[in-house]
Every structure is written in C-alpha cells, then in structure tokens.
Design a protein that fits this description.
Elements lengths: L15 H14 L12 H8 L3 H13 L3 E4 L3 E4 L11 H18 L4 H20 L2 E6 L2 H15 L2 E6 H6 L2 H9 L2 E5 H10 L7 E4 L1 E3 L1 H8 L6 E5 L3 H13 L6 E5 L4 H9 L3 E4 L4 H7 L5 E4 L2 E3 L1 H11 L2 H4 L1
Parallel strand pairs: 3-4, 3-5, 5-6, 8-9, 8-10, 10-11
Antiparallel strand pairs: 1-2, 7-12
Helix pairs in contact: 1-3, 2-3
Length: 325
C-alpha cells in the first residue's frame, strides 16, 4: 500500500474530510502523488488516519466529482488528473470584495478615491515590470512540446521562458547548470514535477507545476477512424500512458482497439507497429517511431495544450513577493 503523508488536526474546526481532500490535492500538486498512482482503499486510509471510513469516502467522492481521482470496478482508485488550484467560478466577486476592503480602509484614513486608484495602478505597473525581468525555465520530456509551451507561457505571462528537456537535466552540462542557476522560476507539467525535482535537487529551486489538456484536434483525428481500426500507442512514461487512457475514455473512445506501451525494445516496437493500423505516439517518441515505421502506417502525435486555469494559477504564484522583491 502506498504511504500517504496526511496529518489531521481534529481541533481546528475544519471538517476532517475537507482536510483529507485538501492534503491529497496538495500531494498531487507537489508531485508526491502522480497521475496513475493507485490510492489506498477507503478502509486502508481510514485505518491509517484513525478516522471513520465515511470521512475518507466523502473526500474521495468530492475528488472524483472534480475529476482528480478515478475509480475502476475491481481495480481501485487512481490519481486521474492534476489537482488544479485555480477556480474561475465567482473569482470576479472575490476580487471586488478585496478591492472594496482596500478602498474602505483607505477612506477611513482620509485618503481620496483618486489616491487609492493611483496606488493600485502604480502597484500593478510595478508587478508587471518585475515580471518582465524574471527568467523562467520550462521543462518537458521533448523539445517540441517544451518550445511550444514555453512560447505560450512567455506570451501569456509576459516573461522570458527558456525551454529545456528532461534529457538536458540528465546530461547537466555547464550551459544547463548556468541556465538553471540564473533562473528565478522552474516550471514543469505536473506529471514531471517529481522527476524534475530529483534531477535538480542540488539547486535549491522550487518547482511550479502546470496542468495540460489533450488537444481536441488529436482526439478528433482518432475518432474519425473506423470502429474496427487497430491502434498502437507508444510513449515515454507510465504517467503519460495513464493520462492518454483517461483522455480517450473522457472523449468516449474507451472501447477502441488499442495496445499501450512505453517499451524501448526495438523488436517489441516493430511488433506493435506490425499489429496496428494506426500508430499514436507521444511527441517525444515521434522521430524514433517514424524511423521504424517501414510500412508507412499513419502516425498521430498525441498533443497537449496548457490548461488556461492552471496558467492563471501559475501567474498568481509568480507574482508572489518571494520571486519579485
């Protein structure tokens, strides 16, 4: 059974099931629980935490409802998605309340509304200027996706983002060391946070995670093939393989005939290609599989895009005083 580090405070006044839920989400965000991880059963976790099974059941049900966990009959409960900290719902109302509180405080001290507006405007400008001076590193398993997401983040957050791959971190030459040392922010997709953390453990850098969503065009391409099409899927990590299974299931394609693998054995790869009508690959495997595709079968890159809500959460985190001041 996987060991989950959850500490409950029974005197805090916060319902225990909410404490369990929040701490599970925190463990997913920081990479301790990765996509595809099998969770303890409700009974196992309740015994470990010394709480009622009802408490764990309520937490699991809420996380399933939000798409963070997924239960499979006879197999158990798994981490199905990154826990997304940003909730757009009612966010405008929350911000208005903060503005109202600030304005009330300002007016109580005799400040005019014009002075208050100047303070807010100047502060926003200061933060925007500070953001432009930040250098961030975005790390992915393949350079194509790293470049694509780096540009997307640069445009969205208005800062310099340098793309690197996991292979760059494994080699760790002097140029890579220099880039990491000079960066203020390290960013990776949630399913790579744990790996990146190990590879740069000596740099004392916090790693921020972002969520990614399956590209709709990729799903549509797969769905257009006839129902009797045989697919072969090849990727790098088990986490990515689990994500693709979930993405296809969510898209209503759970019943397609598909073989999943992250093997690097050339004979096994060729066997999968021979037995498939269409090959689906993660971007990091594309060039390698293309060379082995001697029968020129259709190859589809399974692409992802950055989750908009996750990017907003990242921007909020980077605005934190620890990075800018």
């Amino acid at each position: 059974m996987i060991k989950i580090n959850i500490v409950l405070n029974k005197d805090s006044g916060v319902p225990l099931y909410l404490q369990v839920k929040k701490q599970i989400m925190d463990l997913i965000r920081n990479g301790s629980l990765r996509v595809g991880t099998k969770m303890p059963t409700e009974r196992e976790l309740s015994e470990n935490l010394k709480v009622s099974r009802n408490t764990v059941s309520s937490a699991y049900k809420e996380l399933e409802k939000e798409g963070v966990l997924k239960s499979y009959q006879g197999r158990g409960t798994f981490v199905a998605e990154e826990a997304r900290p940003w909730k757009a719902k009612n966010i405008k109302d929350k911000i208005i309340k903060f503005v109202d509180l600030g304005l009330e405080e300002a007016m109580e001290t005799g400040m005019s509304t014009e002075e208050f507006l100047d303070i807010v405007s100047n502060r926003v400008q200061e933060k925007q200027e500070a953001m432009k001076k930040i250098t961030a590193v975005y790390i992915e398993c393949n350079i194509e996706q790293a470049r694509m997401f780096s540009k997307e983040l640069s445009d969205s957050i208005n800062m310099n983002v340098i793309p690197l791959t996991l292979a760059d971190l494994e080699e760790m030459d002097s140029n890579i060391v220099n880039i990491i040392e000079k960066s203020q922010v390290i960013i990776a997709t949630f399913n790579h946070v744990n790996e990146v953390n190990k590879l740069i453990s000596g740099f004392n850098k916090e790693i921020l995670g972002v969520a990614i969503n399956p590209d709709l065009e990729t799903i549509v391409k797969i769905a257009r093939y006839p129902g009797d099409t045989k697919f072969g899927f090849l990727c790098i990590s088990e986490e990515f393989m689990f994500k693709i299974k979930g993405a296809l299931e969510t898209a209503g394609l759970a019943n397609i005939d598909i073989v999943y693998s992250n093997t690097y054995d050339e004979k096994e790869i060729i066997k999968i290609i021979d037995n498939s009508d269409v090959i689906i690959v993660s971007p990091g495997r594309y060039n390698e599989i293309k060379k082995l595709n001697y029968k020129n079968k259709d190859i589809i890159k399974f692409l992802y895009s950055l989750d908009d809500g996750s990017v907003k959460a990242l921007k909020s985190k980077i605005l934190d005083v620890s990075y800018l001041e």
